[in-house]
Specification:
single chain; about 260 residues; elongated; mainly beta; about 10% helix
């Protein structure tokens, strides 16, 4: 009897591995990779910007028949000025893969003004004052998106409003006049933007502007006598901080 029991136990011991080998292997599902959010730059946005701007203003006399005028054709001055620059932007972005195309318009106020005193014939004789007042742009943008970072370049149309004034209070010839002109031109620039949320975007931007020369008539009440100047806002540059609100544009999921 004892031998029979030992024989049965041995048979079961040898049979167990064979039975286990015939059992189906349990399938395990692989753990899916984590979801990585991808920022979507496409959409319409509005916002504001503020910073600084600097420019060289050139003015050269081209005609002088007004009695109070002192500068002669060919004479003039070039002055550098700087000041606060700020306004708003509105635009739209299209994103294809990691390339972002955009179209943007801006309008900004400029607080750059300077005065120049020609005292050759007495105190306050021919005091010139100039200032830049408004700047507008319409530009295309092209950028590379790295998730919620956007590095871009831009270029297109720019226009600036400039004003030049003259005043002479030294007897016997006194007078004054002023003129404002809109200068057309172009701009190029580059910047970086960061998507804080799917709607709020902050950024930094630098831009360079070049404008045409326009003729200003400063004879004032002495017209039709002339006191004319060719004026050019030269090498205008700006550096600003931007804040924009983008409508829509959900964050996409990438596995």
């Amino acid at each position: 009897m004892k031998r029979l029991l030992l024989t049965g136990v041995a048979a079961l011991a040898f049979a167990a591995p064979a039975v286990a080998a015939d059992l189906p292997v349990r399938a395990y599902k692989a753990v899916p990779p984590p979801i990585v959010p991808v920022y979507d730059w496409s959409g319409f946005y509005v916002g504001g910007h503020i910073g600084g701007a600097w420019v060289t203003q050139e003015a050269t006399n081209t005609a002088r028949t007004a009695a109070f005028a002192d500068l002669s054709p060919g004479q003039g001055a070039s002055q550098k000025g700087s000041g606060v620059f700020g306004g708003g932007q509105i635009g739209y972005n299209w994103q294809v893969s990691n390339v972002v195309f955009g179209l943007e318009g801006t309008l900004a106020g400029i607080d750059i003004k300077k005065s120049l005193l020609n005292n050759e014939f007495g105190a306050r004789d021919d005091e010139f004052s100039w200032k830049l007042e408004w700047l507008a742009t319409v530009t295309g943008r092209l950028g590379i998106a790295v998730n919620n970072n956007l590095f871009y370049a831009k270029g297109g149309y720019a226009g600036v409003q400039s004003k030049l004034s003259v005043s002479d209070v030294v007897l016997p010839f006194v007078g004054s006049g002023s003129d404002s002109q809109w200068h057309n031109g172009w701009t190029v620039g580059a910047g970086w933007e960061y998507g804080l949320t799917r709607n709020w975007i902050v950024g930094l931007e630098y831009a360079y502007y070049s404008f045409e020369t326009k003729n200003y008539q400063l004879a004032g009440a002495a017209a039709p006598a002339t006191y004319a100047f060719d004026v050019k806002p030269k090498d205008l540059q700006s550096a600003v901080v931007r804040l924009s609100y983008k409508f829509g544009g959900p964050v996409l999921a990438k596995y």
